[in-house]
Fold each of these.
Amino acid sequence: MSVLVFADNSEGKFKKNAFEVTSYGKKVAEMTQTNLVVLTINADNVSELANYGAEKILKVSNDQLKDFNAKAYADVVKQAAEKEGADIVIIDSSSNGSYFAPLVAVNLEAGYASNAVELPSSISPFVIKRKAFSSKAFNNTEIKTSNKVIGLSKNSFGLVENSVNTNEEDFTPTLSDDDFNVTFKSVEKATGKVSIADADIVVSGGRGLKSGENWGIIEELADVLGAATACSKPVSDLGWRPHSEHVGQTGKPVSSNLYIAIGISGAIQHLAGVNSSKVKVVINTDPEAPFFKAADYGIVGDAFDVVPRLTEKLKEFKANQ
Amino acid sequence: MKILVCISHVPDTTSKINFKDDNSKFDSTGVQYVINPHDEFVLTRAMWFKEKQGASLTVVNVGDASSEPTLRKALAIGADDAIRVNAEPTDGFYVAKQLAEVIKNGGYDLVLAGRESLDYNGGMVPGMIASLIDYNFVNACIGIDVEENQVTATREIDGGKEVVSTELPLIIGGQKGLVEDKDLRIPNMRGIMMARKKPLQVVEPIDTNTTTASISFDKPEPRSACKMVDSDNLDELISLLHNEAKVI
């Protein structure tokens, strides 16, 4: 028996997600008194994983797997799980992770709990808490099968340093042509910008900004904080900002450490989407805006007055750090 | 082209979420049910294939009789016919198995489902179906074009989007972007009248297992009151974020 973690990378480099699932997997392995095995595909340097408890690392190097492919990745994870006798597989909740985890579950005849937010509350029966109702509630789910797949919600567990000696092993999976029936053509990524999925801090604007042309103050604040920019649904519906920035129930979920909402009143659908953020700051002219009830810190004030001053203050603060 | 759109019947997005029976069950008292918003986007895209490319369009739901008004709404929007698999949608795998059976029997070329349902947010049914019946699969799909058997699809990735090519048969987990909010259709009176006459077939579920079970629900801890900071005292906000919240 063992616990298998899939540590994803982007162009060879691990992101925080990879360290978080490894940290989590280490704890699950301790709880189930087994070993942790971490699977990587085309990662440049796997040694960083040793800081988070990766006792054994399986390294796959394969040009065919250069671009993410859900079916092929699911097959690799299945073969690695079988080789290692892993009965628990842990995958992150990135766009790639949530894409291929259901395939892994079917491959392994495993029950799958997505968006898990905590360690299992019990091992036998195997019960795990996961987000439901768009973060308006949690569901304690029992996985009844002997094999189990867990999708770990981003930023729910955090990083736990745990230096170990690592045993690295090359692993060569068997791939078939059928694995590549969906083929990568092209990618479009905003360069030099932090993505909402990866950001520790998100600065978000709503209709209170009055026009898409006023987004400069949002971007400047985000720049100082190294934050991603986001917006409410009406803003993307009005075409002020691209849909890819829409956060909320039908948009992107946000689970950052800090979420700053500027000129967003806080409709229930918006709150649902950003509920998992740890700390929320609201800046709004209307003291009755419902968002204040869901926030940790609030400022009643005009965005056009408060935000540029906050940006300046933060610049000074950062300069003195 | 034969299209199947999978429809979840979920609480309206403005619903207050409450539980009953010792927090073991969702309390539907006073809750309005709607077509799952992600499913509404894929249904609207499917209507385009029906109108522009002559596709046939069936909608399906796994649920009890209470989800029939939701299927009728999909018929009023323009689907040709509906299938209801008469079963409690107990877990994602169970639902995927039921839908896989419907797809096999109906020989659908293109299956469109929402990326996730806004109740249990499992986000697993489309992928599981693909794996069960060996259909090609694109998740978080925000664009799709079909020419003969060839498909070009765009999926949302963290920080951008990716274009892939593939072939039918295909299943997608779709979302906004396939169409925009302004493209969504509100059923008109004629559509509603016609929907009453369209076939809604009820089929019994196949015998299959579940892999997970819902034990109980929790609501998020109530948060402490929002600390208000004067707009002339932004240093205090920075200090709170740095020293108290430790997020900057």
Amino acid sequence: MRIIIIMLIASLYLSGSAQTIGGYIIDKETGEKLIGANVYDRISKNGTATNAYGYYSLYIDTTNAILQISYIGYATEVFSHKLTKNTSFQLKSNTSIQEVVVIGKKAIEQRNEMSVAEIPMKQLKTLPMLAGEVDIIKAMQLMPGIRSGNEGQSGMFVRGGSHDQNLMLLDDVPLYYINHLGGFVSVFNPDAINSLKMYKGGFPARYGGRLASIMDVRMKDGNLKKRQSNITFGMISSKFQTEGPIKKDTASYMISGRRFMYDLFSRPITWLINDKHSKGYTFYDLNAKFNYKFSDKNRLFLSLYMGNDNILSKKKTKENGEKEQMSNQTKWGNHLLALRWNHVFNQRFIGNITANYTNYRYASEFKFLSNYENESKESSYLFSSGISDFCIKSDFELFFKNYTIRFGSNQVFHTFSPNRTYLKQEGYVNIDQNFNTQTYQALENSIYLENDISVGQYLGFNIGVRALSYAALQKQYNNLEPRILINFNIPHLFSIKASYARMQQYVHLLIYSGAGLPGDLWMPTTKEVPPQKSELISLGIAKSMLNQQLELSVEAYYKKMNDLIDYQDGASLSGNNTKNWQQLIETGGKGYSKGIELLLQKKQGKINGWLAYTLSRSTRQFEHINKGREYIYTYDATHDFSITSNYYFKDNLYFSASWVYTSGRAITLPNQQYQTLRLMPNNTNPNEVIAEPEFELVKISTYNEKNNIRMHAYHRLDLGLTYIKQKKKTERIWCFSIYNAYNRQNAYYYYTTSVAVKDENGNDTDVSEKKTYQRSLFPFIPSVSYSINF
Amino acid sequence: MNNYIFVLLLFFVGVSCEKETEVAIPHSASQIVVSSILIPDKEIKVFVSQSIYMLETEQLPISNAEVSLFSNNQLLEILSLDTTGVYQSKKVKTQSGQNYSIKVRVNGFDEITASTQVPYSLPLDSIQLKTFIGTSDNGISLSSLDLFFTSGDKQLSYYQYNCHACTDSINVFGSVCVGEWFSYDAIILEEGDIKSKLFTNKLFNSTNIKLNLNFEDPTGFFFDSDTANYTLSAQIYSLSEDLYLYQKSLNAYAESTDNIWQVNNPPQIYSNIKNGIGIFASMAYSNVITQRVLDQTK
């Protein structure tokens, strides 16, 4: 700490005679902030990059500077005139990313960060689509250290962590459930997204709350210059987006929505063929953002997200004058609202204060209405669960020469509602009441201090600490999370980076049935269930090549996790037994994860893409699971390889392909069977005989080791072709894609069953044998989507 | 939730495909399986068999085992194999309160041992029936039954209730019986499932126990509930701790095989057999109340 203070004072002293300029880097056509744009002064040879809000602050030696500003997908601009202190710049977008731009000096070797997965949105939108949808979660799964769950899941498993250990931030606000359609697509509508960045390690102190990863997704602010809209018709969903100025260069809006169309066909068809019994499923997302610039120093941003999945079944009958109507509806989704005030105190000091609300709710409702001779009776049953957070967050950044201090706080008021059951019944017994209602409240506070220091061109640090307190159910936890990252740049060779991060997680996910289904319940840390903890050490090298066109990073990591939870053997959240959830789980689990990751990434050019490989091993250990022995984690992947590439034939015609290969998931299949006695329920008629206990022999399947089998390796090739046609006032985009191009049957699950042995003629005999079968979900799926931009 | 899974499954199954696959299910050493549940005043029967590889189909009992029965370390009897493949005592009958242990020797396997203490039976003091307390999801009238009994001591004891109700046989269809019972009683909810028949006395400060159960009135299915009667039997089994844990794991196992979607860690069946698997445990049930209950609303 003393060193930091001395460096801070020294920096202040040194900056006394210096000039510091600051401002935003903005898209010339839309006014959108560019996050991660490079700003480089050719005279002083100092460089920096814009932060998560598109703001930069740069020290220059004199009042003159030649600033080179670059960003992927944008034409590099050089500004060489006298600068004022508050200087914002505008960059012009290229239509494609095939044109190579000269990148400023802030190369990967000089960034005080590691274990970051980042895909420029322009590159992401060129990836092969899944039934006409680009999915940012699926794209992230192509990065090293991030593996997908089962086929058809959006679940992400980062460096051996479980999928609840990922913090998904949309405009700084957590989203608790990110899947639509059972994980086929995620809730992030790429049309509404400005940038995404994921930290797998080397976590800066400004982030916390989960063990495995932080994904920071930023919505577009809205076009400040002119109105722009687009409509897309796809095979999964249809979308619209519109953005534009409310007052030019002062206020803007962005509204984006999409809807799954399946139910528009399924409901009338099932109504007709099932005798007035309709069934359907749909989902929708609505993203909206408004921003208002009060002055050069004050801006206000309002972000809104609403998303829901809905399964609906309705049936009507009419017989002998009696009418009945039955409906069954299951819906789940997130709501998010954030209000952010951005204030520029001066060119070296900016702050953001955000008040936000996020809510995830799952509800299942059954209603029955009957009407006979003008007398109506109603029965209804509602089960709901969810979690909601109110949060006040503040973040400040103070820029000095080669030194940035970030500090802030976060106060979160969690409300966990795992079970609310409402029953209304009119008939023999009239009931109208709530029961089994459970609500837990918790207060989570954190403050952080982060120091990003560069000592000359060759040494950099990101040192910080996060202090946490958590109180719930008459129990309080206080913890400190130290974070350190060291970056040593060996000139003309590569940089060596090392980091240490301690993380804590105060919310636990009770998985209903397999990762990522909507009935999963978020539960609080309690006296009996302490917070999950992890310690992560990473060591790597990074190098940029070919004038920064290519970036190579190789990292090794070791992670130890403590106080993990899992279900006891055989336990599950069946029915509404959430009240006793703490008795269903094993606590005090340990997890170990280690691996080596390689990423070779080319973010622009006629051919661009990346190659990723991970060699890893992840295990778990609980006192009462697997007889206390360490076992392979189910989402462990020994080998995880992906190659993703785009090729531009022309500006308006490009081809994309991605191929993934992942070692099979570890699962438990019984390997032995035996017969044993079971005490049977008494089924004798008490009219006839006095019952005595009875026993039967039952067949039991058992296993020697948890996760004793590896499923077959998962691999898949996706292809895409995009054609853009410019019209006078509009732009038309055709996207053709093939998911699973060579129709690989990747296993969803295995099961073993007895089948009759066939005779020579192919007929069944009396002899049976046991065979193992696999079920696969998604075969070769071609798709097309059509968009109009106007 | 099930609805959700069903619709998703329909969606997935629509595009999914199935094929036979080669999976290298690991082999592990076969184990001796011993199953025996002792009941007071009954002969002792021990099933001895062997676990087999998952993909094999034929399971043969073991006929060359030597099964020795002990009580307080004294050899009582070497059990003899009967024609049904069961090792059975000829001299000894189980007694409440006694400790029993067995040793099983099979060529090629380590010696297997297990022991149990036989619990005492507990009398049911009384039962109390209330009819028409509500309506079930099936639209059948619900009845409620309170069981009153006295736990043997304040130590942790283990129980299972066993109730059955059947209407009088009044026509060619015979009786209607109800075997599905459920309870929102705290001692059952403690087990995590309203249909669990297992429970303990740990929530009680005294030895007096009242257990509340619900069931669909059997007269509600076919008969005029205002006039029909039914007979009801209620039993309380006292279980040894091992039997309680074993039955509990069997319930979890049955639940998990019924629904593959709901279990994350497949259950392992509890065993108290050293160097083998299975169960050697005991229970007592001597008190049975069977009474004819007239409809109290008439």
